[in-house]
Design a protein that fits this description.
Helix 2 crosses helix 3. By secondary structure, the chain is α/β, with parallel strands linked by helices. The chain has two domains: 149 residues, 3-Layer(aba) Sandwich (Rossmann fold); 111 residues, 3-Layer(aba) Sandwich (Rossmann fold), CATH 3.40.50.1860. The strands form three sheets. Strands 4-3-1-2-11-12 form a six-stranded parallel β-sheet. Strands 6-5-9-10 form a four-stranded parallel β-sheet. It is 40% helix and 17% strand. Bound molecules: D-glutamic acid. D-glutamic acid (DGL) binds next to helix 3.
Length: 272
């Protein structure tokens, strides 16, 4: 087999509704250093968490029809639980030649790791409602007590925090407090961060937590899964000088642009 040269390597497309997927991009770059990346945020549709299922699914499918033609990626990482739990199967069916690496609530690893048997899943209201999420619990965590917590506000709060705005501790605590359950002498000991925005707030969560727990961030596991699908190409230089981001609103704010620059992503507009 001939070695693929870097300029022939297709990029990896990382997708989210906003900046949350950057937590996955960071890990993907570490593990796939020879690949270039395109980061796509459907910020015109943000937040996905409150959308009704049918229109959101349509939106994601038609957006991907455009993205795949335009950018011809090697693989797609859907770095959004809200999108993938809804539209993952439809994306694979609609684009059978594309590799889709998904993001789903890390319920299986949480069930394997918990000592108290009390697990909470912190997600968007959309992800909490999904049949996919219920199936994960039934398949992998039926022996655990699983509390699903759908937060209306945390994804927006994470974006605000990254913009440098101050968050009100009481408001954040109100969002995470339902995750902390005490029952018959046992307490929640692991909380799944089932929205890719939330790892940005992990330090705030740790500081405000009523008691210490493990906060499970699946970013590294998603990156490892992508690496299994995307073949390693040896002897290639670091390719990230070519990385860029696309925001569907075409007008991300100044602080988002600064964040992208810090992540080494040039901002490109999707020509209409
Ligand atoms: N980052 C997305 C996720 O992982 C959700 C944020 C949103 O509500 O758009 O679920």
């Amino acid at each position: 087999m001939e070695t693929q040269r870097r300029h022939e390597l297709k990029p990896i497309l990382v997708f989210d509704s906003g900046i949350g997927g950057l937590t996955v991009l960071r890990e993907a770059r570490l593990i796939m250093p020879e690949r270039s990346f395109i980061y796509v945020a459907d910020d015109a549709g943000f937040p996905y968490g409150g959308w009704a299922e049918a229109p959101l699914k349509d939106r994601i499918l038609s957006l991907f029809a455009e993205l795949l033609v335009r950018y011809e990626p090697e693989a797609v990482i859907v770095a959004c639980n809200t999108a993938f739990t809804l539209a993952g199967a439809d994306l694979r069916a609609a684009f059978p030649h594309m590799h889709f690496v998904g993001t789903v609530p890390a319920i299986k690893p949480a069930a394997e790791r918990t000592r108290s048997g009390m697990v909470s899943v912190l997600a968007t209201p959309g992800t909490v409602k999904r049949a996919y999420t219920r199936d994960l619990i039934q398949s992998f965590a039926s022996q655990c007590h699983v509390r699903l917590v759908g937060s209306e506000n945390l994804a927006r709060m994470a974006e605000a925090y990254i913009r440098g705005e101050n968050l009100d501790d009481a408001a954040v605590l109100a969002e995470i407090e339902p995750c902390f359950v005490e029952q018959e002498g046992r307490r929640t000991d692991i909380i799944v961060l089932a929205c890719t925005h939330y790892p940005f707030l992990a330090n705030v969560f740790r500081r405000l937590a009523p008691w210490p727990v493990d906060w499970l961030d699946p970013a590294e596991a998603i990156a490892r899964q992508a690496r299994r699908i995307v073949p390693l190409v040896e002897n290639e230089d670091w390719a990230h000088g070519h990385d860029f981001a696309v925001f569907t609103s075409k007008r991300p704010g100044f602080s988002t642009i600064r964040l992208l620059q810090g992540a080494g992503l040039r901002l490109e507009t999707m020509a209409s």
